[in-house]
Design a protein that fits this description.
Layout: H1 2-5, H2 8-11, H3 22-36, H4 41-59, H5 66-71, H6 75-83, H7 92-109, H8 113-136, H9 139-142, H10 147-162, H11 168-173, H12 178-205, H13 209-254, H14 264-281, E1 285-292, H15 295-302, H16 304-321, E2 327-332, E3 335-341, H17 345-361, E4 375-381, H18 388-404, E5 410-412
Helix pairs in contact: 3-4, 3-7, 3-10, 4-7, 7-8, 7-10, 8-10, 12-13, 15-16
Length: 423
């Protein structure tokens, strides 16, 4: 509306500078409408029309040629404005930016999102050239691009760019994660530091030309150091968070949630390591299979909630009773396995007896159990040419013997491999 109303300040903000051509305003308005209607055929038609017009300006028509003059709205208002001073024309930079924006919108409608982002980013680079020219007083940079045109083209290109914010590089750039924050910081520094460097050079070269090269070298080197340092700090924070999250995952994968002892998977992994060490160096390896006597009675009498508390207290007692190299794992239900590296059968039986007495002397009334809690333990030492499963079978047979002999006792497995007890 600036042309019909005669608002020359909006058309040409600087009295001696370039102005916004009516075709520029019309094309920008058409692309804005096409962006709103980007999923409609009308939006496609508007974008294609603007692209054809801008290509005509770039390759076939002169800025003041008859083709453009015939298509230009408000020709009389434009003629009056040109008579006041610097002529207003559709510059090449403006046409290039609008053509890139129209092509980006067409690529978006054709589901070529990566190409759409690249074209929209390029359309932003063109007004950036004009901004640098105005800021640094370089008239040849901004050419025929007015400040009003810049203020229209940049939001338009940003709107087209954000249409595909959910895909590709733009999604990574806008990500709330640390990688996105690092990228945004690098982008900010990548724009601001060269701009400030250019500002210093332009002002320095007028007074001391010899200092301009030195300022350029120092500024660029220090900016590189700052950028690398900040990126290293942020990436270190990312790596620290990743390691912390990895440890949490490992904990969830290897620990029993109820008793906080190791689970069966972690026990089998540790057993494989100890078995390999046994075959290389031959240190003794013993295992204790622990079962709570009459645990079903506890669950039936006091409820499963109390039974869970008993399991937790028992697991805590076993962990406190073991050495740092020993491993306590929940085998299933009310059964636990204690893996004792560097421990012969006799020493394992003594440790098992101490554990049995400890449990028998513990008061479980705080857990809501009015009855004494007892355990039965089967002990087995790993034999030559024997797997960990074979060792546990012998420990299970010894545990079954302890149950048959009255429970609340420790029984050591025979060296020979017994048959499996019936379920």
């Amino acid at each position: 509306m600036a042309y019909p109303l005669g608002l020359h300040l909006l058309i040409r903000p600087l009295l001696t500078g370039p102005g916004t051509h009516p075709l520029t305003a019309a094309a920008t308005l058409a692309l804005a409408l096409a962006t709103l209607l980007r999923n409609n055929r009308l939006g496609t038609a508007l974008a294609a029309m603007v692209l054809a017009l801008m290509l005509l300006r770039l390759f076939l028509a002169e800025p003041s040629g008859p083709w453009l003059a015939a298509l230009t709205p408000f020709p009389q208002a434009l003629a009056k404005l040109n008579a006041l001073g610097h002529s207003v024309a559709l510059g090449e930079l403006t046409a290039l930016s609008l053509a890139a924006s129209a092509a980006a919108l067409l690529c978006y409608q054709a589901f070529r999102l990566t190409l759409s982002q690249l074209l929209a980013a390029f359309s932003l680079a063109v007004p950036q050239v004009a901004i640098v020219g105005y800021a640094l007083g370089l008239n040849r940079f901004h050419g025929e691009t007015s400040l009003t045109t810049v203020s229209m083209v940049i939001p338009l290109a940003m709107a087209i760019l954000l249409c595909s914010a959910h895909r590709g590089g733009l999604r990574a750039l806008l990500s709330p994660r640390v990688g996105g924050r690092v990228a945004r910081l690098q982008l900010l520094l990548g724009f601001s530091i060269p701009f400030l460097t250019g500002f210093l050079l332009v002002n320095t070269v007028q007074h001391s030309p010899d200092l301009s090269l030195g300022i350029l070298i120092v500024t660029v080197s220090q900016a590189t150091v700052v950028l690398i340092t900040v990126s290293a700090i942020l990436y270190d924070q990312v790596d620290l968070g990743r390691r912390r999250y990895q440890r949490q995952l490992e904990l969830l994968a290897t620990k029993d949630a109820l008793t906080l002892t190791y689970n069966r998977y972690a026990l089998e992994r540790r057993a494989d390591q100890e078995l390999a060490r046994f075959h290389r160096h031959g240190p003794p390896l013993s295992a204790l299979l622990v079962d709570i006597d009459h645990f079903k009675v506890i669950n039936d009498t006091y409820g499963h909630g109390v039974g869970d508390l008993v399991l937790q207290r028992l697991a805590a007692l076993m962990r406190s009773h073991c050495r740092c190299q020993d491993m306590v794992a929940r085998w299933g239900g009310e059964e636990f396995v204690l893996l004792l590296p560097d421990t012969a059968l006799e020493a394992a039986a003594q440790a098992a007896e101490k554990l049995r007495r400890l449990i028998a002397e513990t008061d479980f009334s705080e857990q809501g159990v009015g009855l004494p809690v007892h355990i039965s333990i089967g002990c087995a030492q790993l034999m030559a040419n024997e797997s960990f499963s074979d060792q546990l079978r012998r420990a299970d047979a010894a545990l079954y013997s302890a149950k048959r002999q009255g429970r609340n006792q420790v029984v050591c497995a025979e060296p020979s491999r017994p048959s499996l007890r019936q379920a």
